[in-house]
Amino acid sequence: MGSELRLVLIISFVSVLVFSTSSSPLPRFPRQNRARIQLFGEDRNDYQYETKYFSQQLDHFSFADLPKFSQRYLINSAHWTGASELGPIFLYCGNEGDIEWFATNSGFIWEIAPKFGALLVFPEHRYYGESMPYGSKEEAYKNATTLSYLTTEQALADFAVFVTDLKRNLSAEASPVVLFGGSYGGMLAAWMRLKYPHIAIGALASSAPILQFEDIVPPQTFYDIVSNDFKRESSSCFNTIKNSWDAIIAEGQKANGLQQLSKTFHFCRALNSTDDLSDWLDSAYSYLAMVDYPYPADFMMPLPGHPIKEVCRKIDGASSDASILERIYAGVSVYYNYTGKVGCFELDDDPHGLDGWNWQACTEMVMPMSSSQKNSMFTAYDFNYSSYKEDCWNTFRVNPRPRWVTTELGGHDIETTLKSFGSNIIFSNGLLDPWSGGSVLKNLSSTIVALVTKEGGHHLDLRPSTPEDPKWLVEQREAEIGLIQGWIRTYRLEKEAQFPLLKRSWESSLLEKEQELLVVEEKIASKESKVLANQAVILKKRKSDVEGELESKCKLAEDEIESKRRVWELREVDIKQREDLVGEKEHDLEVQSRTMAEKEKDITERSYSLDEKEKHLNATEEDINPKTTLLENEKERLRKLDYDLQQTLVSLEDKRKHVDSATEKLEALSETSELSILEMKLKEELDDMRGQKLELLAEADRMKVEKAKFEAEWEHIDVKREELRKEVEYITRQREAFSMYLKDERDNIREERDALRNQHKHDMEALNREREEFMNKMVDEHSEWLSKIQRERADFLLGIETQKRELEYCIENRREKVSALKQKAVVTREEELDLQNGVSTVSNSEDGYNSNNGSSPSSATPFSWIKQYTNLIFKNPPESSLPMHHHEGALPSEKREEKAYTKGLSIALSLVSSLIQQRRGNNTSGSDTNETSNHKKRKHDVTHEVDPESVISSLQNVSEDKHELPSNQTQAPPSIMVVLSEIVKITKVTCETEFINKVSNIECSDDPSEAGTKMVEEKKQDSDCSEVGFFNTQTLSKAKFFSLLV
């Protein structure tokens, strides 16, 4: 821009902006690079992906209802391990071009995806490729207003919104995201990691010149690196290129010099100036420095390995008689025509200068560059911001903001900034790349790492691997893989720490099944119900989510349809308004036509009036003509009279002289009367003549005034006639203009209406296609969800079936145990019968005991032997009194404890009462009949409940009757001790037998949890009996027990 400025801004594969040495409207891209993209970029189908579109906001920083646009993205899920495994998402930040080109030239990401089990996503940058707001590139690039949404901030927000929505749709909110990008895409990856650290866990920014702004790095750095790349290959090559610029200017100044230059460099059209050729060569040298790869590649053009070395070989190896410009052409042909298939070269493929990157370079991506006199092989120049700003204004009507990037995203004191606010960023650079001078070249922290290679080119590490890869490139990629693995490993460890895996509850329950079978059954049943409930809730939630999502998408589509319908309605309203306006204009034209008709009528009337006046004037003129003739005749007569008068005067003068002479003679002679009379007559004649002369002069003056008045009136009539003629001509022209305008307006409205109808028809067809595609997509997604839910349901039912089989196995074991308990209960009953049958024997032993060694308590403490042996039982309870089954759920409550104690004590008192009655019966009569009745009564008392009040009353009666033991008896009879010791055992066995009988009647149903539930309910219903088994020394009050006995 201007003679002071030549700015080369080369971002990624097409971002070369060359500012020529002479003033130019705006820098533009060389056609060959763009052609190379079309020739080689679209034919590469090495990688498989799906092309999809995301409805993206036009402005993320405004709440205005602006139209959305379709952002294209490419996706590959072939190697993704899924959201449940926290499979990572690799996202490439789209550059300033077609996203397919970047996807097919980023082989490194494709190659490591299987290793990481990653999902690959390539979103396209807005205003590039097919991601065009306003529907087309023409509309998007229309003016500064439509281009105002092409900013780095909007692009970063696009990526953030897109990946958040993608993770939500895939139910992969916990999956880590790793960003990738090269050149401008690398800048976006690094900036996104800084601006949205909660969305991505790390970024690989390859060849990202985030410091190429303001004066952070010297502006001559770019061209110095390009020049050094050539100088390291050949000093003579460097000098030849450096001297060629003056040779080009000198040749261009000659006659037919531009034609000769065009011929020398094989251009398809003649050069307009030497600046065009300089820019063309400048672009080639800069690109060669960027893609100076160690092996053959076709990234931008088909090039050999180490292309700069080949260029210098061509320049230095030319024949000795070749001119300096012929040497330059031989060298630059390596870049532009290495295959030899190009016949001629085009200089410009964008005559309008409208390109997305040009807009970005003229707004916020202001990257100043210059060329030094000493170290550069290019023409020396300094960056001139004023000229830069002027050209941007002339092209886009915008002024650049050179400090906005550093204000918004940072740049100054980058080390402190990244240490304080950044982490997990890899800046990879090759020192042969001229953009490496504007990137980060040293480690800033343990997580902000710079991987620098001396022989590397422009984001070479992102290129696909080849057998020709040098060792240092393989090591660089391995280092990048290791760092990314560390990020993902740390992320997963942090997630595991936040959400540790819990042991399944049924695993701990199985360990206690043998001891607590009822609790396990209850827990399994509870767990089963909870799992079913949770699964039902989950399924219901997923179903509602799917339905909600479908509903939202349908609503979104309906809203879009509604919005488009509203747009068409607005257009119809606008058309109607225009038609109304045309109608109004037609009405106005009709009114004007009527007015014009009235005016014409008025003009006709006025013309008629004028004609009448003209006739009147003609008549007057005809009347005046005789008068004029008469006047002329009178004038002629007057002239004659005047002449005669003059003659008369002369004659009179002569006569006067004669008279004077005569008078003198008369005076000399004498006065006579005759002379006096003659003198008087002469005087009278003279007076008459004078009066006639005065009358004639007055008539002449009157005629002159009347003539002047007539002439003035005639001139006024001529002026009016001319004005009327002009007005008629003006009205005629206006009528013709209105007729033409009305015709053109009707034609335009007709054409616009037809265009709108065609556009509406086209849009409705496109909308119908989109609706069908959307519905098909929804059906596919719905089918996928249903199949997924069915698979999960099948897996869940399989788990339930497994647990059911385990429960049936446990129930079978329990039945075996119940059978064993039944057998044991039979044995226990037999022992009970044996015990009852042995009461008489115990009584006889008691009699022997009383007669030999017994002693009687004192009369003040009746039945003290019962109290003593009660204390003994409390201190040493029988083993059989311990509960067989003890679990937390069986602990009696306070009321149930009281009831169980009362029942157990009632049985005990009934036994004691039976023994006392037996002793009384033995003292009175020892007949077998009484024994048999007592035995039956004891058996009845053991198996049936006895009213404790009647037993206590019976005991009190015994006390009042002084039926006490002998006074010398000091120990309780053995029969009492045996009875007290067996009370709990008998009661427990009886209750457990009842419970076993009830349980044995339960049949196993298809649902194992139902049988377990019934067992638990039977246990609870029989708790009044089973809790007697807890008749122990720790819960039974001795005082209460003794008070009930006594």
TrEMBL record:
InterPro entries to which the protein is assigned, alphabetical: AB_hydrolase_fold, Peptidase_S28, Ser_carbopepase_S28_SKS
What species is this protein from? Answer: Brassica campestris (Field mustard)
Molecular function via GO:
serine-type exopeptidase activity
The record's comment on protein family reads: Belongs to the peptidase S28 family.
PANTHER family recorded: LYSOSOMAL PRO-X CARBOXYPEPTIDASE, PROTEASE S28 PRO-X CARBOXYPEPTIDASE-RELATED
Which intervals carry biased composition (Low complexity)? 850-859
Q: What are the start and end residues of every segment in region (Disordered)? A: 836-861, 877-899, 917-949
- What this protein is called in its record is Lysosomal Pro-X carboxypeptidase
Renumbered to this chain, the Polar residues biased-composition regions fall at: 837-849, 917-932
